[in-house]
Every structure is written in structure tokens, then in C-alpha cells.
Amino acid sequence: MNITLWIVQGLAVLAFAYGGWLKAVQYEKARAEWGWVSSVPRAFVVLIGVAELIGVVGLIVPQATGIAPIWTPIAATALAVVVLLGALLHLVRKEYREVGVNAVFIALAVIVAIGRF
After folding, report:
1. DSSP letter string, 25-69
2. CA distances from 2 to 61, 71, 107, 111 (A)
């Protein structure tokens, strides 16, 4: 079970790191790829990206080092909440394809949260 959780954590890290990096560091590229970015203030998009990148660190570092490993499921839960809120924005904007992507991200985060709690 531990190996499975590490695999899921790795997939979640890759997914959240990519999205977080685009939002936090490459705003113009994020704006070109995702329509919703243009309708949200730039500072808020960057804040979401930074939160995702912090969550990525929280998914790996505490569990890998054994230092305060309780932070790993907390980070996973926080990421799931961020993505859930994003899914609600996509529903309001009738961007149903993105809601499907959000569902995958939420599933990864929830699996990590449940498995590590």
C-alpha cells in the first residue's frame, strides 16, 4: 500500500507542479492555455499557483523525511479543496472538460489524504 501511495503522490506532484508553475511563474503561458485565467485577477492566479507549489512540497517532503508527516495528508486535503473550488468556477463558466480534469486532480489528492491519514 505504501508503494501505491508513493506512486499516486508522484503523479499528484507532477500534475500540481505543472499547473502551479504555470500559474505562479509563467502567467502569460497559463493565460494562453486556460481561458479562465483571463477572467480572474492576475494576483489571484499567481496566489493559486504559489499555493499549489507549496502543496507540492507538502505532498512529498514531510512523508519522505519523516519530519511531521501529518503535513502530507493536510497538504493533500488543502490541494483537493483548491481544485474543488476551481471545479466550481469551471462549472459556472460551463467549462465541463476542465471539470473532468479537476476530478482527476481531486481523486489523486483525496487518495493521498485518506491513505496518509
Report:
1. T-HHHHHHH-GGGGGS-HHHHHHHHHHHHHHHHHHHHHHHH-SST
2. 15, 16, 17, 12
What single DSSP character describes residue 94?
A: T
Proportion of the chain above pLDDT 90, given as a percent: 95
String of b and e for 77-107 (b: at least 16 CB within 10 Å)? Answer: bbbbebbeebbeebeeeebeebbebbeebbe
Closest by CA position to 105, among listed 35, 27, 8: 8
**CA–CA separation, 38 and 58 (whole Å):** 29
pLDDT digit string, tens, across residues 49-101: 999 999 999 999 999 999 999 999 999 999 999 999 999 999 999 999 999 99
Taking the C-alpha atoms of residue 50 and residue 71, their distance in angstroms, rounded to an integer, is 17
Q: Judge whether residue 1 has pLDDT over 90.
A: no
Residue 38's identity, in one-letter code, is: S
